[in-house]
Amino acid sequence: MQSRKYLQLTLAILKPHVVKSPFVLQKIRDLIIDNDFKVVRSRRTTISYEEAELFYKEHKHRFFYNRLLSFICSGPSDIHILAGHDAIAKWRHLMGPTKVYQAQYIAPDTIRGMFGLSDTRNATHGSASWKDDNAVRRLIYAWKEYENNFKNGKCKSSEVWKKIASVLQNENSQWLYTGIQCENKFKELRKKYVKVKDHNKQSGNSPMTSKFFNEFEEILGDKPCMQPVALASSLKKRPLTFTSQDSDTENSKDDSDRKKKVRKTRLQRELGEWSATLREDAKYREEVREQCHKEMIAASDRAINAYKEMMKKLIDKL
Known about the structure:
- By secondary structure, this protein is an alpha+beta fold.
- Among the domains are: 8-126, Nucleoside diphosphate kinase-like domain (Alpha-Beta Plaits); 133-198, Arc Repressor Mutant, subunit A (Orthogonal Bundle), CATH 1.10.10; 283-317.
- It is built from 13 helices and four strands.
- The protein has helices at residues 16-19, 22-34, 49-55, 65-72, 87-95, 100-106, 111-115, 133-145, 147-152, 157-171, 179-201, 213-220, 247-317, and strands at 8-14, 38-45, 77-84, 124-126.
- Strands 2-3-1-4 form a four-stranded antiparallel beta sheet.
- Helix 8 crosses helix 10 (157-171) and helix 10 packs across helix 11 (179-201).
């Protein structure tokens, strides 16, 4: 008797710049059907700013957070609930890497490789669920097992994370996570653990904890980065008193400090100008890339129309 396979649901969002292009939108829909997905429910809507804040709350302190919100609210998006066997993993594989430049070089046949414009305008969004606590615990202990592989430098970090992902998949067929998903989840949990650890070290603070704190304490608690060999004293030093003999020395120190401040201010100004130039250059490159994308779509439309006219003429002759 064959074992019964259940369908898995996953969220798929086609972002505003895709919805604005009928040609790209139809291509992605064809890819969804060709990869044996069932479209359970679809809706076209413009995501509100409040909904976007809730949706992307995990990125709130990242530098691209405001840009992400502005873009996802800039126009209508197509939201689909897809069903299929191993739907979450299959959809993420079909989308490709989050960073478009990686997708274009590593996986050019994926949706983001073909239709992504930038890391923000990367065409699609897909869900990655870590609802099973046992999967998260196995991820934490798998990192401990492969810790030496990260340190010895014999293989790339991304390859080690792929091995960890395969360990999870071999232990449970429902734990279908990619190496990138495992890496992001582990770093997110470790960041929370370090934050709680630092909070609890400060005197006067009420004790805090976080989910999976005990597991991280077990694998990281005795490391020097968590338990320093020595700590600098936090006691305030007594203020020094100076006599009249030290006045000349103090004046010379004030002059040198003033020069350092002027030099630092000039350096900050130069860095600010340099950063502004880089931002303008990045903005220009993105505009050029978007223009090239529009021209490619327009050329494709012209080719399709020419093909239709040619076929119509052939049919008329027949």
